[in-house]
Amino acid sequence: METSALWNQLSTGAARLDAGLRLCAPNAALCELLGQSRRRLEGETLADLAPGRTELVEAATRSALEQRVVQLRGVALAVGPQRVVLVDVSLSPLPDGDLLLEIHALPPAPPASTARLSESLRGFAHEVKNPLAGLRGAAQLLRRRVVEPASKELADLIIAEADRLAALANRLLQGTGAAQRAPLNIHEVLERVAALLAADEHPPRLIRDFDPSLPAIDGDPDRLTQLVLNLARNAMEAGAERITLRSRAEHGARIDDRLVRLALRVDVVDNGRGIPPEIADTLFFPMVSGRADGSGLGLAVCREIAREHGGALDGQSRAGETHFTLLLPYGERHG
Fold it and tell me: What is the pTM of this model?
């Protein structure tokens, strides 16, 4: 078997580094780990793999000067705008003066508090069920007594949200978090979110920018409502006075590392304070929040819901505008 074929069969990401610490002949495992093509990686410098960090370059310099193997543990590499992986790095001198770079991806380690958090969530889910039942019953009683259509609509909204929260509590208690999918019109989800926002004491100005020709998509209406509502609530907490809910079809959409023929695109755009620069790269990580009193779970849950549906969620921010985009593939079932 040819050397190049063996090189590309290695499960460890590897490449040669020339005297300028530029990547040469990155193998298939390294390209997959970093989410880039061989052509794109070829010629990039070691510093490009960890912008703003110096330990990789310093380790390579030591390895070349001292002619010995240098290893680094738990290095964080940015492999996309919203994804960071932890890796072990090994740098070894080669006879021709180049260096061998080897990168071993580490399995994601949950925070030490994950188990305690899980138990706390289950405990919270158990305790919240009785108040929810009381809230629902009071709303039903109120609905029977009121006459005005607007009051009846508000009572119906309370009942529907109590049912949604009760379903979420049951999922936490039973450990059945999978989405319950069926054909749905995404605009029903967006209108439900709009109604909830309009019922707020200080509602934002809502702009609906819908494509009415969009076909139904396979999804869980409660989970997708939770996703979009979380984004909108975050916007309001960031001082947004205007929120746009937009729906479109996107042809040839890229979802993570795959290309899909047709996807549903939902944009949530607001004019709030935006994403703090210091958390932009870890925005969707659990326990990361831009607010001192935030749990850091909202966006992590949103991305989890998107992935349950085979989709992707990304966000970006610039002066005066924060923009989250949800992509859901048509014609695919996941999970």
Answer: 0.54
